[in-house]
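Q: My collaborator sent me two sequences in one message, no labels, and asked for predicted structures for both. Can we handle them in order? The first one she listed is below.
A: Yes, handling them in the order given. First sequence, followed by its structure tokens:
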Amino acid sequence: MKFLTVAFWKALALKYGVYALAFNAFIEAIFFPIPPDVLLITLCLTNPENSFLYAIVATLFSSLGGVVGYYVGYFGGKPLAERFFGEEKVKKVHRLYESYESVIILLAGFSPLPYKLFTVTSGVLFASLKKLFIFSLIGRGSRFFAEGALIYFFGEDVKNFALRNLNLISLIIGLLILVSFIIYRRYRKGVLP
């Protein structure tokens, strides 16, 4: 099970570059446990001048993988969910998810939780595939571009900080998005001046 180790994927990134990153970002959004951040950071540190190219590749292929994850949930998970929980309960959860799906997907891009949980769940709950793709591009892109930019501008100095605190940084950004969304919704409802 060597292929399930971070060291294996770092070595793969160094050997195959952007192709390994694209492959990893794609499969991680469907089922794979190693996040593309590992490869992205490795490549950015190796070739900082290409950091933004790597961020584009990770964003695009993670979002495309999210579409496949959606269909896995839609065709595989939806029938199972309806069988175990009943069609009415699934519809009720879908209506709740539908109200907040944009912010959920945005937060998923920053969350330390595996991204595939959100892509497959979006399919199970027959959420909007268009919103999933658009907000995946925004959420995942923000995360990957932030990592690429940090390394591009600060290089090796930021490596240890970014790797040690990646989940914390992601969580803080996610919370900022959530608070902004709540304020925006309250403002639209006329609760805030």
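Q: And the one she listed second?
A: Here it is, processed independently of the first:
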Amino acid sequence: MEIKQLLYFIEVAKQHSFTKASQNLHVSQPNISRMIRNLEEEVGFALLDRTSNHIQLTAAGSIVFEEATQALQILNHIADKLNDLNHVPKGIIRMGLPPTIGSKFFPKVLADFYKLYPGIKFDFVENGSKTVAKEVGEGYLDVGVVVPPVNEELFHIVPIIHEEVQLLVHEDHRLARQSSVQLQELKGEAFMLYREDFTLHGRIIEACKNVGFEPNIIYESSQWDLIRGMVANNLGVSLLPNSICREAASSQIKIIQVTPLIPWEVSIIWRKNRYLSSATREWVQFVCSQFSGFD
């Protein structure tokens, strides 16, 4: 039984797809299929139900998945602790980032960190906050950047960004000339929001319900620039964090303050009672120092 076999098997099981696993691992799909077939022959059981496009674990697969996950976590911890014997931190940090937050706030932070610690590399997983928190909690990721709320009993949570949500409308929209609007004025509008695994999605729906209506969501995406393009083509309205709105502003798009305020906070999280490598500890401290006072 090889470590690569277990890695490939775990990724296919998590993604329920050979194609997605191939993309995430940057390994050819035939190679992944061959390795998992070899693993199945070695253990003497079929581990995956391949009868549909949505791959599922068999009973034997569930056992191997659980045990293999724990085994790989132990191997990663061994590597982390051995790396900590060096005076200069090095190693790989497995980090979860929502796509919008990563592209907007982290490129310069990462560049500055790499100048200080060229021996530290990153393995990024881009997902919504709910998925990132789940994978940090399960030990797949060392650290994550999320939009709260998350389980305070399970995680260390350090807020790093505080903003508010604002409204984006087309220049010809009925509200375009107002500097502020009441949220209830948006009843009946076509909304374009981040997809459901983004915390902001649920927060906006909750805020709308609190003022008496459920938003008519016509489109969901993980990409703010796609949402911006749809607003620019007058297909609907969107509610996005202030910094994203500023970047989305154009002659075709107007930014409007919304009342009551909808807060948007970004935090860095890691699991309590879990060993953090020196590389990860340095990264957490660096991130907190870089975002100190950010508003």
